[in-house]
Amino acid sequence: MDKIRRNERMTAMMRLLVGSPNRIFTLSNFCNMFGSAKSTMSEDVDLLREVCREFDLGEVETVTGAAGGVRYRPAVSREKAREYIAELCGRLSGTERVLPGGFLYYSDILSTPDTVNRMGEIIATEYYDCAPDFVLTMETKGIPVAFSTAHALGVPLVIARHSSKAYEGSAVNINYVSGSGNIEMMSLSRRAVRENQKALIVDDFLRGGGTARGMVELMREFNVEVTGMAFVMAAASPEKKKISGAKALMTLRVSDGEFPTAEVQPAEWLADPV
Q1: Pairing state of beta strands 134-138 and 157-160?
Q2: pTM for the whole structure
Q3: Residue 1 resides in a domain
Q4: Is 164 exposed, middle or buried (0-12, 13-18, 19+ CB in 10 A)?
Q5: Average model confidence (pLDDT) for the chain?
Q6: Which of 51, 73, 95 is the last residue of a domain?
Q7: Same domain, 100 and 68
Q8: Residue 151: what are its φ and ψ, rounded to 5°?
Q9: What is the tally of structural domains in the chain?
Q10: Do 11 and 92 fall into the same domain?
Q11: Helices of type H across 20-106
């Protein structure tokens, strides 16, 4: 095998790290792959770290300890996150997307890979320190963003359903009060999660908080700790939700009148310094 040049090594390393966020690659793994010494690989990692920091491309971290190595985290600064969400809010505001009942059409946004990937990275950046073991969502439009968040965190995605499925085995079923005031059912396979794990709840829309509260109660049945709740969008009304501590990327207000208008704004916490 011909000697591998540094630019080739670094390109391959970055591709592997970015393709598997939060996965720890040992230096020995890279040494065997490229036929290089650990000192050489350490220098390459330092260069990658500086490049990512210089161009705000995320974080390349060295993890110490017996199971240590190198990992990549797709971090997004608060400033860049707010700029991105503000641009998205501009596309969603106005009269064209308002639906009967004060709802907003944004399924096209939640079906665009680049958009949901960026939103997933923004959410993941806020919850790295919480170290969730999995991301939990409902079988709704929030699945793409929840999946992107799980990918950025390097953890599995768990989907709660409205009814149990035979092919998922025995399940835990609970009843909860939805945002519309109806009694609905939520189901999750007993094999999906384990006791004493940590969950991050991610969903597309927060109105009254009924569904989110149902997911919290469902996790309580599994003895799982909910470390955070994140949403793509939250309705400004009602102001008091059935849950607390949730973070939404955007806030929606719909004006009354002959031609209802949607006012979508970035969440206030995006303007706060870290």
Answers
A1: parallel
A2: 0.92
A3: no
A4: middle
A5: 92
A6: 73
A7: no
A8: -65, -45
A9: 2
A10: no
A11: 27-34, 38-54, 78-92
